Amino acid sequence: MSDRIPDGLRELLAHAAGAGHAQWRTLLKSGDWLLLLVAGVLVAASYPLLWRGGTADRAIVKRDGQVVTELALNVARKYELTGAIGTTVIEVQPGRARVLSDPGPRQYCVQQGWLTRANAVAICAPNHVTLQLSGRSGQNGAYDTLNY
Amino acid sequence: MGRMTPSTIELPVTADDYRIARYAAAAIALTVAEAALPSPLPGIKPGLANIIVLVVLARYGWRDAAWVSLLRVVAGSLVIGQFLAPGFFLALSGALCSLGVLALAQHLPPRFFGPVSASVLAAFAHIGGQLLLARVWLVPHDGVFYLLPLFATAALVFGAINGLVAARLLEAPVAAPVAVNPGS
What we know:
The complex is a heterodimer of chains A (148) and B (184). Chain A has 148 residues and is of the alpha+beta class. Chain A has helices at 7-16, 30-53, 108-111, and strands spanning 56-63, 66-72, 77-82, 87-93, 96-101, 121-124, 129-135. Chain A folds into two domains: 2-52, no CATH class; 56-135, Sandwich (mini-chromosome maintenance (MCM) complex, domain 2), CATH 2.60.320. The longest helix of chain A has 24 residues, at 30-53. Chain B contains six helices and no strands. Classes of the chains: A alpha+beta (148), B mainly alpha (184).
C-alpha cells in the first residue's frame, strides 16, 4: 500500500507523523529573515493606504448620463432633482451620501442605503438618475489644490 | 512481442516523466485535500501543493517544477470539477505568475536565501496573478484591490509556512529509493 503513495506525499506524511524535529529557525537563512521583514512591513503598510484611498469626498449626481451637480461630502445637505418620472431626493452627510427618496417602483437605489466608498454607485434607473461617490484617486488625484 | 500493428504509436516514457508524474500526483492530492477545507474568503487557501513545487524546483530545476505546477492546476481542477471554470483560470494565472517569479528567484544567492524566500515571493506572485486576472476579466472595477491587504497577509503567512515545510523536506534525505534512474 505504501508503495502507492507518491514520494512527496510520503515525505510529508512521515514528517507530519513526527519523524524528527529539526529546529525551524535553522531552516531560515539571513536573506529569508530580511525578505520576511520587508514583506511584513509592506503588507502592514498596505492596510491604511488602501482604506484611505477608498474613502470618498464627492458625490456626483447624473441625469441621463449627464452630470447635474457635484456635492462635497463635508457638509450635510439635501438635494432635489427632477428626473424622468418624478423627484429624486439625495441626502449628503459628512463622508457619505444616499438616495433618500425616489419615485421608482422598486426602490432599489433607496434600499441601497448610505454609500461611503469611492466609486460606489446607486442607480435609480426608472428616473434616469445615478448617484456616484468619487475619491481623491479619481480626477486630479495627483493634486491637493490648483491655483490660477 | 514486437509491434503487432503498424499503426501503433509508442510514446517512450522516460524516467523524467515518471518522476514528474509522481510529484504531480502528490501535488494533486494536496490540492484535492485542500479543496475540502473551508475558506474565509474565495481565493485564500494555504496552497499546500506549492510545497511540492518548491521541493521539485530545488531538487530538479525549474522545468520540472513548471511541469508539476501546471499538471497540478489542470488535473487538480479536473478532479475537483472546476476545469475551465473561472477558478481554473484564476489558478492558472496564479501558477504562471508564480512560476515566472520562481524562474527569477532560483538565481538568488543560495548562501543567503532558502526555500522560504522563494515560497513567499511565489505566494505574492500567485495572488498578484489571480487579482490581475480577476480585475481584467471577472470584476472590471478597482474594488477587488480593496481586498489586497487580506490576500497579501494570507500570501505572506502561508508562503512562509509552506516555505518552512519545503525547507524541512529538502533538509531530509530523499525518503524512498526511486525505482527509476533520475539521471537519464
